[in-house]
């Protein structure tokens, strides 16, 4: 059995160590981190996956803007090398996106490998531009409500609304993680095989390269 919980301040050192393990040195110099600097994470959607207390996977989200519309920036998502190929990246993706939909978010953006993220409904966004030197083929989007990406084009920018930033910061400080934890069964064999290469991609494909 696995437990999925919102990330807390106590989890942060382990999550950062997992990202350091899974991604190349200098990951924080990648273009997407310019959109995150000084902006609180979307705490309800930043999740950790553990079994017997051992951290196996993590996913984070940040708020950004495109054409002044609120957008979720997904990533990084990482699976510990010893657990890759077990479908854990897919578990976190599906769980976090379901939570995002329930919370009323309309659209999600990531930078990653389309062959992996297509299975979750992501498709290339031809007219959405991440900070350089991002490869346009890796800029992908998902609609959590029908038509949410229609007409939403242009540069991806930082979330600078004081009200939004303050609300997110408050939520980070006041998060009651225990009330939002769920216990899930391991993925079935078919799903695990489908995500087999995906966990490898999940450890790097949404690393905002």
UniProtKB/TrEMBL annotation:
It comes from the Bacteria. CDD domains: NAT_SF. Residues 187-209 are annotated as: Disordered. PROSITE patterns: GNAT (PS51186). SUPFAM superfamilies: Acyl-CoA N-acyltransferases (Nat) (SSF55729). Residues 2-145 form the N-acetyltransferase domain. Coiled coil: none annotated. This is N-acetyltransferase. It comes from Paracoccus aerius.
């Amino acid at each position: 059995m696995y437990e999925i919980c919102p990330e807390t301040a106590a989890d942060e050192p382990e999550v950062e160590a997992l990202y350091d393990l899974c991604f190349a040195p200098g990951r924080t110099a990648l273009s997407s981190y310019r959109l995150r600097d000084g902006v609180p994470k979307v705490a309800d959607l930043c999740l950790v996956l553990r079994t017997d207390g051992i951290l196996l996977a993590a996913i984070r989200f940040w708020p950004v803007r495109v054409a002044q519309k609120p957008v979720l920036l997904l990533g990084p998502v990482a699976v510990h090398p010893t657990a890759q190929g077990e479908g854990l990246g897919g578990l976190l993706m599906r769980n976090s996106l379901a939570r995002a939909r329930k919370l009323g978010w309309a659209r999600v953006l990531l930078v990653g490998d389309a062959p992996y993220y297509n299975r979750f409904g992501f498709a290339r966004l031809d007219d959405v531009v991440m900070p350089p030197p991002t490869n346009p083929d890796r800029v992908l989007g998902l609609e959590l409500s029908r038509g949410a990406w229609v007409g939403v084009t242009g540069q991806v920018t930082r979330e600078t609304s004081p009200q939004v930033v303050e609300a997110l910061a408050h939520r980070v400080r006041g998060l009651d993680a225990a009330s939002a934890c769920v216990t899930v069964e391991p993925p079935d064999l078919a799903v695990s095989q489908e995500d087999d290469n995906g966990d490898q991609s999940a450890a790097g494909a949404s690393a905002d390269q």
